[in-house]
Amino acid sequence: MAFAQPCRKAFILAAGLGARLLPLTKEVPKALIKLGEEAVIDVVSKRLIEAGVKEIAVNTHYLSEQVETHLKNTHLNCNFTTVHEPELLDTGGGLKNTEGFWGSEPFFIHNVDIISETDLRTVYRYHLASKNMVTLVLQERPSTNYFVVDSINIICGLYYSQKGLIDVRRQPKGPVRYLAFSGIHVVSPKIFKEIKEVGKFSIISLYLRLIEEGFLISAYIDNDKFFADIGNPEGLKRAVEWLSKTKSCISASKSSL
Fold first, then answer.
1. Does a structural domain hold residue 211?
2. Each residue of 225-248: pLDDT tens digit?
3. Three-class DSSP category at 35
4. Which of 11, 148, 154, 203 is the most buried (most CB within 10 A)?
5. How large is the greatest C-alpha to C-alpha distance in the chain, in angstroms?
């Protein structure tokens, strides 16, 4: 797997309303919120491009014209395709709506509001080695909901911590851990043959059904890397500070050469 081809395609989920970031998102979509000098969608896209991605699909809804114009004028070395949703389809419906975009190779799904330093090439190789339907990047950190992961890093269900409910769809092997989702997936295009849901639906509910039906979903656990959800003000601030420090370190390294 060391010589495996990199992932060529990705899907950025960018159709959300950005309600948690109001008033910042009153006139600007979440995808175009600035992280320093760059729009968040550019930061996410660059990470995917660095991992080998050449084509990116982006779903749009709220203030979609702004996102579409931004991507048409981008100087990033990647082909962008926007998929407009007149009515929000949620994450699962949004994925199903892009079915015609994918070929035969697994692809990334990446939330537009997630900034991380996860090594995406390594995640992709991990997914290929597993030969499973889906791989999700997970972390040990506080969250509202947690995936139930067994001793061989297979996801077995979901723990709703605020409700105190555990929804197990597969018998775990060995002890389990409760891990938070980092908004990064690798998905086999074979998944489209298994989607029975129509209209608006959550990709997490789809994954839970697939687990119950016997499909394997892998957990890639990445506890040591930076992660921020910029969909809320606190996460946005953390991401801006981290990116500023990262760029400062890069500049210092270059100047010392």
1. yes
2. 999 999 999 999 999 999 988 864
3. strand
4. 11
5. 56
pTM comes to: 0.93
d(CA 254, CA 257): 5
Task: Supply the CATH number for residue 41's domain.
Answer: 3.90.550.10
The pLDDT tens digits for 15-58 are 999 999 999 999 999 999 999 899 999 999 999 999 999 999 99
With vertex at residue 217, the alpha carbon angle to CA 216 and CA 219, rounded to the nearest 5 degrees, is 135
Q: Is residue 3 part of a domain?
A: no
Residue 2 covered by a domain: no
Counting the structural domains of the chain, the total is 1
In angstroms, how far is CA 6 from the centroid of its own chain?
17
Closest to 231 measured CA to CA, from 93, 31, 77: 31
Per-residue model confidence (pLDDT) at position 166: 95
Q: Of 103, 2, 21, 125, which is closest to residue 57 (Cα–Cα)? A: 103
DSSP 154: B
Tell me whether residue 40 is in a domain. Answer: yes
Give the domain range for residue 196. Answer: 9-255
